[in-house]
Design goal:
Elements: H1 2-25, E1 29-34, H2 41-49, E2 56-61, H3 66-73, E3 77-80, H4 84-97, E4 102-105, E5 111-112, H5 116-123, E6 129-131, E7 135-139, E8 142-146, E9 159-162, H6 176-186, E10 191-193, E11 199-202, H7 214-221, E12 224-228, E13 239-241, E14 244-246, H8 250-255
Parallel strand pairs: 1-2, 1-4, 2-3, 6-10, 7-11
Antiparallel strand pairs: 4-9, 5-11, 6-9, 7-8, 8-12, 13-14
Length: 256
């Protein structure tokens, strides 16, 4: 027990040190995760702590429980709201109060590779929005890579936004991203397209707005490449095109 407490204190000191370094070397960034699947708390906290560039975390659930105690013990902010739109708004409010410069939105059932926050940090520049579009999707048929029919649509699961430019989401759980994207565009937000290498959008669980099938995704998001039954770590592994060991752009992958 004594060794366990010592290990916990050491881990907390390491987290504080990493966050201090991140403040000095990168943007102040917060991950905002609308949280509705308590069984996913270990996965979300694990993906957060594994980030190569640390960020703070706000989990916004519907009601307290064992998950919220675990999140607070790990150093995350915990809040409560009803709809997904309200949860994202509350997360943005927390980020403003803490002086965060950027917010990136996570879904609690997705896979976020350890390089995601660092990638976003490198792409911010003069942009107000960094988005990876639809990217990698895991559904019943396997792992697919999708382009998007609507690149101007900022998917909540793969988008980061400059806090000072972020509008409010409508207080609902379906269609909130469409209205938010429209408001950002009308405000003249400058967007950068990010590569999809650090994220898998999961549609195999429950509570999704529309069926998780390739036919539905092709109709909504356009043609896809079937990657197969690859592990999630595929998205963090550099691939080669024409023998060049590189991380190609999405367009290069599709061309290949």
């Amino acid at each position: 027990r004594r060794a366990s407490r010592a290990a916990h204190r050491l881990a907390e000191r390491y987290r504080v040190l990493r966050y201090y370094v991140a403040e000095r070397l990168g943007k102040r960034m917060m991950i905002v995760c609308p949280f509705g699947r308590p069984e996913r708390i270990d996965a979300v906290l694990g993906q957060w702590s594994a980030q190569s560039l640390p960020a703070s975390l706000a989990l916004v659930g519907s009601a307290p429980g064992a998950w919220s105690e675990q999140a607070e013990e790990a150093g995350a902010a915990v809040e409560y709201a009803d709809t997904i739109g309200e949860k994202r708004n509350l997360g943005l409010d927390v980020a403003r109060e803490r002086g965060e410069e950027w917010v990136t939105f996570w879904d609690d059932d997705d896979y976020h590779g350890p390089g995601q926050i660092e990638m976003i940090d490198r792409l911010t520049g003069e942009s107000d929005v960094v988005t990876a579009g639809i990217g990698f999707v895991r559904h019943a048929a396997g792992l697919y890579l999708y382009n998007s029919r609507a690149p101007e649509y900022f998917n909540g699961h793969s988008t980061a936004v400059r806090v000072s430019k972020a509008p409010r989401f409508p207080a609902r759980s379906f269609g909130e991203e469409e209205a938010w994207s429209r408001d950002l565009r009308q405000a003249g937000a400058r967007a950068t397209l990010a590569p999809p290498w650090h994220l898998v959008y999961y549609r195999t669980g429950t509570g999704h707005a529309y069926p998780a099938s390739d036919a539905v995704f092709m109709h909504v998001h356009g043609p896809a490449i079937r990657i197969g039954d690859e592990p999630d770590s595929f998205v963090d592994t550099p691939r080669a095109i024409d023998g060049k060991p590189t991380r190609p752009t999405l367009a290069e992958v599709i061309d290949a």
